[in-house]
User: What shape does this take?
Amino acid sequence: MHQMSEDSFDRLPDPLILVIFNSVADIKTLIRCRAVSKRFNSLVPQAETLVLKVDRVISTDSDGSFFLSFLKSIFRSLHHIISPKSLPIQPRPHNSPTQILRGFDRIRNLEIELPGGDLCLEKGAVLKWKAEFGKRLKSCVIMGYRGLGEGEELDFGGDMDGGLKVRVVWTISALIAASARHYLLKELIREHRELERLVLRDRDGEGTVVMDREALRECRDGEGEEEQEEEAVEPGERDKSRTKVPAVQMRMRHEPLLELEGCGVRMGGATLVVVTPIKDGRKMGTEEPGLVCDAFEGMFGEAARTLLKTRTYLLEMNSF
Assistant: This one.
């Protein structure tokens, strides 16, 4: 009588299986793995490294998708800056990333990928940004251009013509998108207290929010203080769709036509903006070269490093 041999995979110890699961990382794949066996079902929730790709997370509300609700929060913020009259807050979607991740107990490294970027720019304009947060914004590096091969001169004479106004709008839009993404993460940060690194980006590579271990701890520790600040604000003035952006200093650099030797590209109207909070008249946070060099890769990284060597224009903006 033939005796079935033991499955060799069953001989692998649990820690090694978890190493494999952490290498897989993709949540959809891991959820499918839970159906393989009782052993897998018990081990998958212990995975520490996860990647959540938000393709089409459907809400049970009539609003539609989670991503649509997220975009609406950004549009509400832009409207709030232009008009003092508040728009009604839309209901929270039921199938948020926080709820999807509740089946995992020991998340340490998490990446969330949204379906697309948040910004609607004019034709030919390209923008990328990277923001670091703790309880609030720590820094934001923004790199953009308007077309390849054609130069564009900005007028920094103070009349906001010649494209400078557009660059300021780019900066505000990127900060609103970053603060909306940060707000989206707060509940998740509160529930997963073992998190050591959290990255939220979009599939288009437009914008990235990054939080390290210290920033995550700061965000959790500041919860009580944040609640007190919200109570001190008049109900009609609260914007519950994003984290408040503090008063910031913007260091802007611009080249009408930037030639990149490394990739042979001529970038028209190349602009680099480094945003850092200010408190009591002093700039807070990391020095610019370190921020810029870590922000982008490839063509954008080369352009940003090149623009660091050019003339700097300083602007300041109140909190919003």
Remarks:
- The CA atoms of residues 63 and 69 lie 7 Å apart.
